[in-house]
């Protein structure tokens, strides 16, 4: 047993969760927390609420729930805030999103109507397929960032919050490459004043959060707090940040299945993936520029898991194709088809077919909760900068410079739980259990 863990400040008082975007994911998240608080639902899909953690030897039978092991904020202490380009309340937005049954939304009407979004920072060039009226204006992007910083401070004071976290749950922006203005904070801030087109709205939110010492989690594949300027700002201001793009449907299946193929040394010739979805996310991703941002995030997973450079006989030059098709009748019920061509002993070929008829926001909502609670825990434990132990939740985990991201979901979960054990001074689980004899 380690003698001492990390000194973690208690989770006293209210935790404000600020959501960027009050669409399908955010309203499903908020409604779910409200339903759980009322005792009308279970937090299924949430590791922080339902997951356990083994302590000590298997024979000790000591497996407390994670929420009882580390000091997480209580669900009753959560307060929600949001920004959105539409002025609809969370109740109206939930009705429009069509994820939840109407009767369930009506049962939560009072709680959802009380959440009305603040005016959002939005730039049409980054999301061409949608537009809204609830949008901030300013002479440049620094002024917009300052308005967000003021929103954050006002929300914290008015709601009586002791701590805050911010979660981006808005649309995927167009693909942009990192450039010189993203390399250091001085250049980035000058670009804000210059109203530089290379600074996306998600970067402005990330900047405002980090300047306000608020942890930031990015649920979309946008280039945002993963640029050097903002990574350095997070470290300088002692704020935790993590990866980007929630790992929900098809990519979740890849990070479960690909490690299994690799563990048995089965080869891969090709993996064809296509999705159909009809919600706002599908409409946005129907634009090729926005799809490229998502494609970059989705394509990287298999390469890192299978390591073709290490196993060229099994994985060199495998074909990997990803398609997303906007199909309005499907709504939020995304369908992911995968056709996987593998080969085994003596090179004999086999196939795997997956048809995952999932509910995108239902899978994403518990990730919002877990990330908010874990990021708050990290800040109270004085953990700053990139939190690689939260890679479990992302298609594109953020890592220190020079390190490749770990995408194997089972390794990610082990790292997450060992981090929690470390924080509490418990022995890390290695699964060795070796005995020797003379």
Question: Can you offer a commentary on this structure?
Answer:
With 438 residues, the chain is α/β, with parallel strands linked by helices. The chain has two domains: 14-247 and 361-423, NAD(P)-binding Rossmann-like Domain (Rossmann fold, 3-Layer(aba) Sandwich), CATH 3.40.50.720; 250-357, 2-Layer Sandwich (Dihydrodipicolinate Reductase, domain 2), CATH 3.30.360.10. It is built from 16 helices and twelve strands. α7 packs across α8, α8 (185-193) crosses α10 (228-236) and α11 (250-263) packs parallel to α13 (288-306). It is globular and about 70 Å long.
Count of the domains = 2
Main β sheet profile: 8 strands, mixed
Structural class: alpha/beta
Say which CATH homologous superfamily of the largest domain is assigned: NAD(P)-binding Rossmann-like Domain
Mean pLDDT: 94
Strand content: 15-25%
Reading the helices and strands in chain order gives EHHHEHHHEHEHHEHEHEHHHEEEHEEH
- The CATH architecture category of the largest domain equals 3-Layer(aba) Sandwich
Helix fraction by DSSP (H/I, runs of at least 4): 25-40%
Low-confidence stretches: none
CATH C-level name of the largest domain? Alpha Beta
What gyration radius follows from the Cα positions, in whole Å?
A: 22 Å
Count of distinct strands: 12
CATH topology label of the largest domain: Rossmann fold
> Outline, from the CA principal axes?
globular
> Total number of helical segments?
16
Domain Myo-inositol-1-phosphate synthase GAPDH-like: 249-361
Keywords: Isomerase
EC number: 5.5.1.4
Organism: uncultured Pyrinomonadaceae bacterium
